[in-house]
Design a protein that fits this description.
By secondary structure, the protein is of the alpha/beta class. The chain is 56% helix and 16% strand.
């Protein structure tokens, strides 16, 4: 069955071989059938005519030979003539009847003589001739010459005609089959050759389609198929030439792009170095300024100068806020911020945000509403609070009338937190760009009171860090809705908050070593530590620090080192060098104004606490207290 199906598929009229076979065999078959039918008909007609002629001649021959025997009454002679004629002419029967139809004599198969479908019969009259065969006149003088003596009937069997017809048809069919087979074989061979040539051309085209442009046909150029093969070879040559040119252009373009990429990377590295240096250089005086302001505020005893000091402190805090926004971007890009997901209640965060932003909304005469959300979430609560704080601050900043709504909605195993405002809205073509750095659609004058345009960039990065989807829907003139999807948590797994402990005091005998190459920062820190009544040793380098520690005669409780120091050395190396020198893992803090992601990542990997300039004195004091108390508790234990 499978073989028949394969043959049928090969003989499908969709193939050239099948079409050639049909074109060759159909006319040949019709011609052969017509010729066989014609010649067979002619042969059968000739055979039938010959049979009739033979029967007629036999009848006349008997009619001429029988008068003497009939007249003389010689019965023996009569039967002898009938038998001889029947054998000579291959007759089925012979018969003699008188003029009245009475049978006189017969030979052969007279039983079926009356059946026309089995025999062909001829009759001839038997008359008395003028002279008998022996030359004597008839014996009966009274007999008249030409008198009818009777009839001679002969019959020929039609089986001979049927056998002849059967043999003739069989020979004709065999001849037609042989001719058809020869024609089919010739057509099959021709079709095989043509199909093989076309198959070869098709295979070459297939290889060309599979990107093998070296493929060529191997057929002679004569004939239509040869012309097709020549055309395919020409096409392959053109394609290979064009491909070579294209590859050359691609190589040139790739080399050009690589060169431009290298230039761009160098420019980006130079830009990064520039911004890192600029950030460091800008933070250095700001850091010193914040230290001097803190020292001045602690020493000021005149109420009339307190307002001036407060204004200076506010300006310094504003600059610090802007620098910290840039720092957050750098820390997120560096991967220095890690998420710590826990199960926590959302309502506590919303209450804290309500207390934080309600006064700001009241200043702009806006209504800030928080819908109760008694749900438990599983994420980092600090980062979720930072995302919501940025979204609420951004909504209040760009809403002139109406209000801001903070709500949540349960969606399966997720909770969608939404901040909806009635502000100016964001055009659809700019809704993606608002998550980029320094993009502010409604602050063309770059008013610093409206921020730097980093809030939504931080939201986008925090969303990616947490794996939470941040969504924006907005219509210009109707407001915006920022949403973030957070997984649901389990209320039974909420950890109770640790009991608040009052901040400890730095021991009076504590000694801190400060390493920084900026003299202004050293003076500012010295003033600050004097106000805190903490002993401080300052140095510009590790070598100078070793000399001071040797002169003091005691090891510091904490090392505070700037990250960027002269002579291609950084704060990490200074801390490690001092630890090796004194043979003790002294607690250390790294302070830097560098916000480059690789710098933040390196310090984080080194395992040292990191403070960024301009640092807050209260934060520095809290960290110093923690490290000193922890170190002394470990030493006692």
């Amino acid at each position: 069955m499978n073989a028949l199906r394969a043959l049928a598929s090969r003989l499908s009229l969709s193939s050239i071989r099948s079409r050639i076979l049909v074109i060759a065999l159909l006319p040949a078959l019709l011609t052969e059938f017509g010729m066989v039918a014609y010649f067979t008909t002619q042969s059968l007609a000739a055979a039938e005519a010959a049979l009739q002629t033979r029967a007629r001649n036999a009848a006349h021959h008997l009619a001429d030979a029988l008068p003497y025997a009939l007249v003389s009454g010689d019965t023996v002679r009569l039967y002898e003539l009938l038998g001889t004629e029947m054998e000579t002419s291959q007759l089925s029967y012979t018969r003699i009847v008188d003029p009245r139809g009475q049978l006189i004599a017969s030979t052969g198969d007279t039983l079926h003589a009356s059946l026309p479908q089995t025999h062909f019969e001829q009759r001839a009259e038997i008359r008395l001739p003028a002279v008998l065969p022996d030359g004597t006149p008839p014996g009966d003088p009274g007999a008249a010459v030409g008198v009818l003596l009777g009839h001679a009937d002969v019959g020929v069997s039609l089986d001979q005609v049927r056998a002849f017809k059967r043999d003739t048809l069989l020979h004709a069919v065999l001849l037609m089959l042989v001719a058809l087979a020869l024609t089919g074989a010739l057509a099959w061979r021709l079709s095989n050759r043509l199909a093989g040539q076309l198959r070869h051309v098709g295979q070459v085209v297939g290889r060309l389609a599979c990107d093998d442009l070296t493929a060529r046909t191997q057929l002679p150029p004569q004939g239509e198929v040869g012309a097709l093969a020549t055309g395919v070879n020409g096409l392959a040559e053109v394609l290979q030439t064009h491909r070579g040119e294209l590859e050359k252009r691609i190589r040139e373009a790739t080399a050009d792009l690589a060169a431009k990429k290298t230039m761009a990377e160098r420019a980006n590295q130079a830009k990064s170095r520039f911004f890192a240096a600029a950030s460091h250089d800008l933070r250095q005086p700001l850091h010193a300024l914040s230290l001097f302001v803190a020292a001045l505020k602690a020493r000021n005893q005149q109420p009339e100068t307190q307002t001036l000091i407060d204004n200076i402190e506010a300006s310094t805090a504003a600059m610090e806020l802007l620098f910290n926004a840039l720092l957050d971007i750098s820390r997120l890009d560096a991967g220095a911020i890690e998420a710590h997901p826990v199960h926590f209640p959302l309502q506590k965060i919303l209450d804290d945000l309500d207390h934080q932003f309600s006064p700001l909304a009241a200043e702009k005469l806006l209504r800030l509403r928080f819908r109760p959300c008694r749900v438990t979430l599983y994420s980092d609560p600090l980062l979720i609070e930072r995302i919501l704080a940025n979204l609420i601050a951004n909504a209040i900043r760009y809403t002139d009338d109406g209000g801001v709504l903070v709500a949540c909605r349960r969606r399966g195993r997720m909770v969608r937190l939404s901040v909806v405002d009635t502000g100016r809205g964001i055009p659809p073509d700019q809704q993606e760009s608002v998550f980029h750095e320094f993009v502010q659609l409604h602050n063309p004058a770059r008013d610093r009171s409206k921020g730097l345009g980093l809030g939504l960039a931080i939201v986008s990065r925090l969303g990616r860090l947490l794996g939470h989807r941040v969504d924006l829907r907005s219509r210009p003139g109707h407001g915006s809705m920022f949403s973030i999807d957070v997984p649901c948590g389990d209320a039974t797994l909420i950890q109770p908050p640790a009991p608040a402990t009052p901040p400890g005091q730095i021991p009076g005998d504590a000694l801190v070593l400060l390493v920084d190459d900026e003299s202004a920062i050293l003076r500012g820190m010295a003033e600050l530590f004097d106000n805190w009544n903490i002993d401080l040793v300052t140095a510009h380098s590790a070598a100078e620090a070793e000399q001071w520690i040797a002169s003091v005669g005691r090891l510091p409780d904490v090392i505070v080192s700037d990250y960027r120091l002269p002579d291609d050395i950084d704060g990490i190396e200074v801390i490690l060098q001092l630890r090796r020198q004194f043979g003790r893992d002294i607690p250390a803090i790294v302070v830097t104004g560098d916000t480059a992601p690789d710098t933040i990542l390196r310090i984080s990997q080194a395992g040292f606490p990191l403070l960024h300039k301009p640092l807050r004195p209260a934060k520095l004091r809290a960290l110093l207290t923690h490290l000193i108390q922890q170190a002394r508790a470990s030493a006692v234990g």
